[in-house]
Amino acid sequence: MAHFALTVSPAPAGQGNLLVTAGPDGTADRALLCLRGKALQPDAALPVFSAWVDWGGEANPLAATLPDPIRFDLHQDAESAALIKVLRAELDSPRCGGPSVVARLTEVLIVRMLRDCIASGSTTPGLLAGLADPRLSRAIVAIHDRPEKTWLNEDLAALAGLSLSRFADLFTIAMGETPGAYARRWRLLLARQDLARGHRVDRVAHRYGYGSAEGFSRAYRQHFGTAPIAERKRISA
């Protein structure tokens, strides 16, 4: 999911969507993360660390399928609990490079939380359920890594180690859409993000494997209901 920038900014407790709390003994015991933008309140718990995290907002298909919030038991992960101690030490004793260290440590914590969440799976169709299946995950990662490629079901089934029919059935059940539909949607989500950054329509079209800017514009309009040039104008306005 490196296609979506992950940014972390420490925030006062109650103003962040990442919250680490401690038990009565002062030891960090739980981490909560709400990637849909809701601030988390510590309530009666002792706040240890709070930050505001952005990971592409609604454009990120993984964020839309994650629990709200993600709950992570630090008692079950000694390495993450130790990471919190280092993070807290950086905040308590500011030094050169401190903000960068805090940001990187927080990113590591978030990745570990996401891995735990993916390993737990999901009963709701979507990216989380797809990534939880090791076979489907190989195909999904390939789609993510090469969005410009016109993926055939046969190629993806081979990566998953499944027959064509079995792969198509499992993918659709887990993801809630066909492999081709997901690959197209993923490609257009990335294209939209690039347009929002001010990239030219023709260059975006070429980057994501469209034969022409016109063909890309038709696909974009069909999916989002607006022309890609409108996205650039909205940003520059």
UniProtKB/TrEMBL annotation:
Sequence ranges assigned to domain HTH araC/xylS-type in this UniProt record: 137-234
Keywords: DNA-binding, Transcription, Transcription regulation
Signal sequence extent: none
Organism listed in the record: Gemmobacter lutimaris
Database matches in InterPro entries: AraC_lig (IPR032783), AraC_XylS_family_regulators (IPR050204), Homeodomain-like_sf (IPR009057), HTH_AraC (IPR018060), HTH_AraC-typ_CS (IPR018062)
Database matches in PANTHER family: ARAC FAMILY TRANSCRIPTIONAL REGULATOR, HTH-TYPE TRANSCRIPTIONAL ACTIVATOR RHAS-RELATED
The keyword Ribosomal protein is assigned to this record: no
Gene3D superfamilies xrefs: Homeodomain-like (1.10.10.60)
GO molecular function per UniProt: DNA-binding transcription factor activity; sequence-specific DNA binding
Name of the protein this chain belongs to: AraC family transcriptional regulator
